[in-house]
Each structure stands twice: as structure tokens, then as C-alpha cells.
Design a protein that fits this description.
The structure is a homodimer. Chain A is mostly beta strands. Chain A has a single domain (24-187), classed as Jelly Rolls (Sandwich). Chain A has helices spanning 40-46, 165-170, and strands at 8-11, 24-29, 52-58, 70-77, 81-82, 85-86, 101-107, 110-115, 121-126, 130-134, 139-144, 150-157, 174-179, 182-187. A six-stranded antiparallel beta sheet of chain A has the order 2-3-4-12-7-10, with no helix packed on it. In chain A, strands 9-8-11 form a three-stranded antiparallel beta sheet, with no helix packed on it. Chain A has a two-stranded antiparallel sheet with strand order 5-6. In chain A, strand 5 and strand 6 form a beta hairpin. The longest helix of chain A has 7 residues, at 40-46. Strand 10 of chain A pairs antiparallel with strand 1 of chain B.
């Protein structure tokens, strides 16, 4: 007889994308993303205020990190910019690169930016009801390009793991910025293969 | 360099839970579930009309069935009953029993009934915004207990597979029926370990 895990549900707050009963919530402040925004002067100027950029509401942090297990969470990115660059998540590859992930848009308007280690970029628009596949081996970051919260549900293999290093070091090959009041995707001058 | 899969998104219709661009839609009629409802006479009486019970909108049928890959779909169960028993999905275990699944309620009101092979039953109520874990080794079926469509998003490992046999043969240990205008969960007299 296998070691059974007891089924459970969690209610997502459809107004703001949080999981009020989540047993674990990570809060990411600007200081947690130090050095990731392209405008270093704008980043430094905001560091004293150190705004909250996003929260991750982990529904199932106790699910064992075994092959075949799934975890899920919601991420809520608040609206704002550092200089001309919209608030985003740190971004990562899966340490176990063969693991995919599924995102489902809940609230607001965002972009899902994905990148291979060779530098191919793929950008998908995420709004409520949009379900996205992050295939294996693609690094991924989400960006709030709207004026309110942007939130999505994420489902991922419990043994996916995180590799933040590559993106912390080189970022993504594209930046998402506001220019003359409009969202624009531009090449990242600091990015090199 | 890994063989990259190209990322993609699909828009879920938030009014009815369908995926209008799904490349594969399964339609399940009463005749596809012959013998699964407890009231055999009621089932036989409805067989000429052979109503459509539910649809599965597969977003990603071409994702390879490899370890680490994820697929997703929506299931739309129409409202109705066979005798006193609410319309439900066939129900299955994963052939690869160690694979979990995540459900997310989109539209309407349903139940998620899960059962171990030893006969333990767990029932969760699914409404919009409710995310449920179907842990490894639990058989699972969904039931529309409302008056409109019940729809949910499912995310599952692409190598989970299906074992329909055990449930087709013995069903679940509990039945979900309407008695005197109210939903009731009763023991299944035909179910034996």
C-alpha cells in the first residue's frame, strides 16, 4: 500500500489572486532583487523605500519533492516600475531542467517572458483565463504591465527546483519597459550569451 | 542542447470553461459511460436520447508523454441526472500511480470524489477559484451538482496515463444523488473492496 497523501483544496481569492489559507507566503522586496533592474540609478534611488514587488502564496509547501508529485502556488505582482522597467519576479530556470510548468492567469495583465540558455526569447501575454505552458529547459519570469495587481496560478513538478544564478547574473535578453506611456520590449544591452 | 518545445498559451472561455482553440475535444455521451450509473433502469430509459454528459478540451495533446512534461485541459460537465444520480466523468486512476494532478474550478459547482484502491473516499467541493490536489494513487471523478455547467482546469504529468478498468468495474464507494431536492452522499450498495 502506498503512503497516501490526504487530498486538500485551497480557495484562491478571485479579487486579488492571493491564497488566504496558504501555509507559506514569500514576500519579495526590491532589496531581494537588487541588481536585476537595468536602470541601476533608479533602483538605488528606490532602495530606501524598498517597495514590496510581489508575493508567492504557496499552497502546498509540504508536498514531498519526489518525481510525480505536483505543487501549486499563486504569485501576485504589484503594479509599479523601477525607472522605466515594470516590476517583475526574479526569474529562474528549473534546477531539474526537464520539468515543465503551467501558468493560469487570474487577475490583471502581465507578460510571461521565457528564454533558453542559448538566448532564444519567447514572450506571452497573460490575462485572466489564459493558460500557458512553460516547457522544459526554458527560464521564466513574469512582469506586471498593468495598473493593478497581476496574479496567476502556477502548477509545477515538486522536484523541479530553482536555478536563480544564471538569470541573476545575466538577466533576460529582452527588457520590458514603458516608453512614452506605452509598453515596449527592447533588447537588453547588458545581456550576453 | 535539449530539444526545445515552443511555449504557447490558450485562452479559456471564462463563461463556459471551454478552450475554443483546443486541438482535441473529447465528447462523452451517456453511451460512453454505460453501466456506470447505479440506477440501471433509469440509465436504459435515457439511452435512446443518449445525452452529452461532458467534454474534455485538451490544450496540449502533442506534449510528449515523458517524465517532467505537463499537459493541461479543461473539463466541462453539463447539468443533469441519470435517475437521482448527477452527471459525472468516467473516473480513473493514473496508470502511472505515482503521478499527482491539480484541478482548478472555473465555472459552476461540482464535487471531486477521490478514492484509494483500499476504498478510502475523500470528497472536495469545487467552485470557481478552488484549487485541489489529487495526490498520487487516488482515483478521481468529478460530478456536476449544480444547475449550470461545471468546468475546471486540470494540470497533470504527461506520463500519468489512465486506468479506467477498476472504476468501470466497481465504481466508487460513495454515490452522489439528489434526494428530496437536495444533494446527498450515500454508500454505493454495489461497491465492494
Amino acid at each position: 500500500m502506498p503512503e497516501y497523501i490526504t487530498p486538500f483544496t485551497r480557495q484562491v481569492d478571485l479579487q486579488n489572486g492571493t491564497i488566504p489559507t496558504a501555509p507559506l507566503v514569500h514576500k519579495r522586496y526590491l532589496s531581494d532583487l537588487k541588481g536585476l533592474f537595468h536602470d541601476a540609478a533608479a533602483e538605488a534611488a528606490m532602495m530606501a523605500a524598498n517597495p514590496l514587488l510581489y508575493e508567492v502564496h504557496e499552497a502546498s509547501p509540504d508536498i514531498p519533492m519526489d518525481d510525480g508529485q505536483l505543487r501549486y502556488s499563486t504569485t501576485v505582482i504589484f503594479p509599479g516600475k523601477v525607472g522605466d522597467e515594470y516590476f517583475f519576479t526574479k526569474g529562474h530556470y528549473h534546477a531539474n531542467g526537464s520539468r515543465a510548468e503551467i501558468y493560469y492567469g487570474l487577475v490583471g495583465e502581465g507578460l510571461l517572458i521565457m528564454q533558453t540558455r542559448e538566448g532564444e526569447v519567447n514572450i506571452q501575454r497573460m490575462t485572466p483565463g489564459v493558460a500557458a505552458l512553460v516547457p522544459p529547459y526554458w527560464g521564466h519570469r513574469t512582469i506586471n504591465i498593468g495598473t493593478g495587481n497581476f496574479a496567476f496560478l502556477a502548477v509545477y513538478p515538486a522536484d523541479a527546483g530553482y536555478d536563480y544564478g544564471a538569470i541573476a547574473e545575466k538577466g533576460f535578453a529582452s527588457l520590458v519597459v514603458e516608453r512614452a506611456g506605452k509598453m515596449e520590449v527592447i533588447p537588453n544591452p547588458l545581456w550576453q550569451r
